[in-house]
Amino acid sequence: MIWKCSQYNFDAKMPIIMGILNLTPDSFSDGGAYASTEDAIAHALAMVDEGALIIDVGGESTRPGAEPVTEAEEKERVLEVVRSLAEKGICVSIDTRHAAVAQAAVEAGASIINDVTGFRDQAMVEVAANCDAGLVVMHMGGSDPRTMQDAPHYDDVVAEVRDFLKGQAEALMAHGIDRTRICLDPGPGFGKTTKQTIELMRNFHELNRLGFPTMVAVSRKSYIGDAYHIEDPKERDAASAAEALMACELGASVIRTHNVALTAEALKENLRPYALIGMGCNVALVADEGEEREGKIAMLNKAIGDMCMLPDTQIIDISSYYESEPAYFEDQDLFVNAVVLMRTGLPPQELLGYLQAIENSLGRVRTQKNGPRTCDLDILDYQGYVSDLEVLTLPHPLLLERDFVVKPLLELLPKHELANGEAVTEEQVRYGKAWKC
User: Fold this and answer.
1) Cis link prior to 395 (omega < 30° from 0)?
2) I want to staple 254 with a disulfide (CB 3.0 to 4.6 A). Which of 92, 177, 215, 349 is the partner?
C-alpha cells in the first residue's frame, strides 16, 4: 500500500518514521526547545539522519488546556522552517487545525497536512482538495483541544473511533481526494481517558480493515505516563517506542515520535514480519447430524488455539468464517475457511513445519489431492519473502484464484499487496465460491 504525499510516495508495508518538531513555547514535553529557526532546522536534520523520513512541524500546542494562538502567529512560527526543510528535499508535514496555516504551509513546500480535528472544517477540506499533499485524518474527542479531556465518554471507543475515521475518509474521497493520499490516526489521548486509549491501542488492528495507512502517535503521551508510572514526559521515550512497536505489529504504518533514534532501533531489533495463514476444513471429527458446519468450525478453532502456542508468534487478527464450495475435486462436502494474520519470528519453512504438525495432530490425511481434510493450513503470504522452492512456494501460487481465500483475506487487509508486489483482488477468482457462515 502506497501513501502518496505530493512528490513523495511511501510504501506502508514497512513502518515510516515521522519526527516531531514542535515550534511552540508550551508543548507538553519540549516546549521552547527550538526557539530559533536555526535550532529547529538543525534538530530536524538530526532526526532525518537518525531515520525519520518525514518531519512534522507544529506551531500550536494542542495539549489539554493550552491557549490557542492566532493564525498569523502560527504562520510566523512555522513557515520559514517548512520552507527551509522542503528546499533541502525533506518531506515536511504541517501539524495544524487551521486551514489558512495549512494552505500557507503547502505553498511553502509542505507535502502532508496533519489535522488533529480530522478535517471536520470544510475550509480544511477545500485546502486538501486543491493540493496533492498527503492527509493525516485524526480522531479527537470533542471539538476543542482545550476541553477534550473533560469527561470523555464512549459506548465502544474502538468502534466509534474507527467509524469516525471511516466516515471522514469517505467524505474526503467524495470531494475528489484520492484514497492513496489518506492516512488515519486514532488520536491516542485526544479526548480519551487512559483506559479508553489503551483499549484503542490494543485493538489497533481494527483500523487495518479500513484499507488505509495508519499512524501511531503515542510519543510521550500522558496515557503512557499513567500506564508505566513515568511522570516526566521526557522519560517516556523507551515506553513510547515499545507502544509504537506494538502498534506496528498490529498494523500501524507511520510512527510519529520525538525520539527517532530509539524508535528506529526498536523497529530494527524487534519488529517481526507478518504472515497470512489460510485455513480450511470439511471433515468434522466430532459433530452430531445437522451440526457438521459447527463441527468444522470447532476444528478450525482448535487449530487457532494451537497456533497461539507457536514460539515467537502472535495472532493479530482472524477473519470471519466462510463456507465454500469444494474446488478442483468437487465430489465432497462443503468447506469452512478462514484467514489468520500473525506476526512471527519463525522463518517460513520452520513455520510450515509447525503448521503441518498442527494439521497432523488434528487427523490430516493426505491421500487425495484437493480431497477431504480435517484441517488444512497454508502459508498464503509472508512479508518480504518470495520463494519457488518445491517444499514451499510463496506467495501461495493458487491464492488469487480461490474465492475462499481472497474474500477472508480482503476482509482483514483491503488493498493488500503480496510479497511479490501483486495486488489481491477478486478479478482472478475462479474456484471455491465462498460466503460468510
Assistant:
1) yes
2) 215
Contact 64/26 with Cβ under 8 angstroms?
A: no
- Clarify whether 430 is annotated catalytic: no
Class of CATH domain 2-270: alpha beta
Q: CA-based Rg of the chain, rounded to a whole angstrom?
A: 24
> Which residue of the set 256, 293, 343, 373 is catalytic?
256
Boundaries of every domain in the chain = 2-270, 274-436
Name the CATH topology of 274-436.
Alpha-Beta Plaits (3.30.70)
221, 296, 343, 402: the catalytic one is: 221
Q: How far apart are the first and last CA of the chain?
A: 29
The closest alpha carbon to 415, from 135, 180, 162, belongs to 180
For residue 135, what are the β-bridge partners? 113, 182
Helices (H), 183-236: 194-202, 205-208, 222-228
* Grid cell of 42 as nine digits: 538543525
Cα 392 from Cα 379, distance rounded (Å): 9
HEC profile for 256-289? EECCHHHHHHHHHHHCCCEEEEEEEECCCCCCCC
Residue 377: Cβ within 10 Å count? 26
77 counts as catalytic: no
- Count of CA atoms in the C-beta half-sphere (13 A) of 5: 31
Q: Please state, in angstroms and as integers, the Cα–Cα distance from residue 339 to each residue in 248, 276, 361, 366, 412, following that order.
A: 20, 7, 20, 21, 8
**Cell, residue 75:** 504562520
Q: Which long-range contacts (CB under 8 A, 24 or more apart) does 41-47 make?
A: 41/81, 41/84, 41/85, 44/19, 44/81, 44/85, 44/90, 45/88, 47/19, 47/21, 47/260
**Mind listing the pLDDT tens digit for each residue in 395-434?**
999 999 999 999 999 999 999 999 999 999 999 999 999 9
Question: How far, in Å, are 263, 265, 346 from residue 269 at the CA level?
Answer: 10, 6, 15
